[in-house]
Amino acid sequence: MLDAAVKALSQMISPPMRSILWRSIGLALVLITVLAIGLQRLLSWFATHGEVWLEGLLGPSWHSSLEVLAWIVSIAAGFGVVFGGVFLMPAITSLVASLFVDDVADIVEREHYPAERPGVALPFSQAIFEGVKTALLTILIYLAALPLVLLAGAGFLIFFLAAAWLLGREYFELAAMRFRSPEEAKAMRRDHAATIFTAGLFIAAFVSIPVVNLATPIFGMAFMVHMHKRLSGSRPELIEPARSVR
């Protein structure tokens, strides 16, 4: 597993990967800026007006609980775009990864597995669906853990473990679906759940590093291509006949 991570890191800055890397970083920066500003404005609205609206909806008995929630949200809103950027980065990288999955995987497979059958590109709609689904699930879990982050340090551990599970799951399934049906890819992920979660810890650590985490889609996808190959076993089919039928 460590060898797979090292290979993914070393290939990130290789000439064939640089164009994808810069496009991935550029798109991530645009998305993170837009969504972070949106999140900050949403939190600011809730801190000032949302409490009254929710109390009218839920009833006076919720007044104390909503006051605490509004206090928590007002602190979060104070962090502004910076908080939003950190909070949303795993979700953003999940979405960006779905756009570059096949570009990255093709390069990794050609360089490291030239004697094996190359994968088949995922339909664009399917790749986007997987990315959006993981991004929304990430945001949902992080929102649930947000009060724990602001009130207790355990929330940061929950963030990290949730990122490891979510990102490991998505990147592995994207890599596996180039060779398997979605059902088979999910079944394989479940069969190797512990290994894939451990691999997800590498990606979660990478996405936790400011600035460097903009390259998470490249690292995560390359890393999981290697992991899928290792868990699948060797399939030494010749490239040229396989490519001729694609």
Automatic annotation (TrEMBL):
**Residues annotated as transmembrane:** 20-48, 68-89, 139-167, 196-225
Q: Which InterPro entries match?
A: CysZ/EI24
Q: Which UniProt keywords apply?
A: Membrane, Transmembrane, Transmembrane helix
Location in the cell = Membrane
Membrane topology label: Multi-pass membrane protein
The UniProt entry, under NCBIfam families, shows: PRK12768.1
- Identify this protein by name: Sulfate transporter family protein
